Amino acid sequence: MSETLERWGSKRAFILAVTGAAVGLGNIWRFPYVAGENGGAAFLLIYVAFVLLLGIPVMMAEILIGRAGRRGPMQALGVLASEAGASRHWRWLGLFGAFTVFCILSFYSVVSGWSIEFLVASVNGNFNGASAAEIGAGFEAFLANPGLLIFNHSLFLFMTMTVVAAGVAKGLERLNNLLMPLLYGLLLLLAIYATTTSGFGTALSWLFLPSFEDVTAEVVLHAMGHAFFTLAVGACALMAYGAYMPDEQSLPKAAFAVAVLDISVALLAGIAIFSVVFAQGMDPADGPGLMFVTLPIAFSELPWGSFWLSVFFLLLLLATWTSAINLAEPMVATLQGLGWRRSTATAAVALSVWLIGLLSAFSFSTLAEFRPLFGRNVFELVSSIPPDIFLPMGGLLIAIFAAWVMPQARVISALDAGERGYLLWRTTIRWVSIPLTFIVLLGGLL
């Protein structure tokens, strides 16, 4: 396949697209409860450190491969490996990345469908005056209703794939340019609202005044894993985006901007969520149910609670929508690289993801007792193994390819950071990022 002719229309469009891929459930759903379970501020500080030492260098490696190859992930890896005199089997890493994203998107679409249901419920005022027991029971009843789960899963996937089918400029770029500023506007609105609650000061102290007494090896490992997960590295999604990167754009500056925007979403979401949680005297370590049980309970007792809860679930829906759109792109790009038309590739990806997603949707009802591996149902498997094992495995191989296999001249050209910048990146990724990624992989395996 020849070099792609598509490019992002501007430097800003590329940064918003990569941020859109990174910002999603990891920032707004996963970060608050992982931080809650791991001590707040100490976890946050360690997480930010690992974003700098682990996330950004590997993100740059993934993007520069796509930028140097100017093709879909499989084709870019194959061409660059041939130029280096290495095995063309490296191209299968692109297929592995597409499979990883496929697995992630299958459960991601199901969970994102929950935000549609809860947005409608909060707009209708269904949580007003409801007791904690009633809200908890309502969530359990929703999960046990396969028809509702499938409807919302189907609706969310339809919203996602229609944008992908429109292409880079007309689909992804237009929507990112519209929704990402809206997402940040809603986040700022919620953060401003948080300042009016009685839990605001407690939330700030809990998030920004670290106590390292409770820091364990497990907390550090969770921070490393989250730094990896939240930047969407390891699945070749950013490699596909690197192929569309403008020639004049600085890769280091773009990667740093994405990391700052990504962390800021997690921080603003944390401030908004924990201010409400602490205002109601609730536990910040309530786990995955924090988003769909704890928050509705907390907001139901606050003035204008339905309005602010509606804003929050709209924010969650927008974040997951932009993320899903940007995660679907590398799968479509991989099939295009094999000669498929974009419309056909999009339809094939949509149908496949929808079918596998049904297994996750049924995991809370019909297939609740079907536990094929490690005593886990399908939803638990696809929501843990791809993020915890496949992503770091892919990231490790991507980092090794960029740091040790690619022709040096190609790396220097694609990185566009000057000799000093290149040497700093190469030293960091070879001797810091790759060992840390290996530790994240081991943690996932164990």
Which features does this protein show?
single chain, 446 residues, mainly alpha, Amino acid/polyamine transporter I, 19 helices, globular
Number of contiguous helices: 19
Total domain units: 1
CATH superfamily: Amino acid/polyamine transporter I
* CATH architecture assignment name: Up-down Bundle
Describe the main β-sheet briefly. none
Unreliable parts: none
Strand content: under 5%
Q: How much is the average pLDDT?
A: 88
Distance between the termini: 40 Å
C-alpha geometry: globular
- Gyration radius, to the nearest Å? 21 Å
Broad CATH class: Mainly Alpha
Total count of strands: 0
Classify the secondary structure makeup into a structural class.
mainly alpha
Helix % is over 70%
Main location: membrane
GO cellular component, one term: membrane
Family: Belongs to the sodium:neurotransmitter symporter (SNF) (TC 2.A.22) family.
Protein name: Transporter
Description of the molecule:
This protein has 446 residues and is mainly α. It has a single domain (11-445), classed as Up-down Bundle (Amino acid/polyamine transporter I). It is built from 19 helices and no strands. Helix 3 (41-69) crosses helix 19 (418-445) and helix 4 runs antiparallel to helix 5. The longest helix has 33 residues, at 305-337. The chain is globular. The two termini are 40 Å apart. The model has no long low-confidence stretch (mean pLDDT 88).
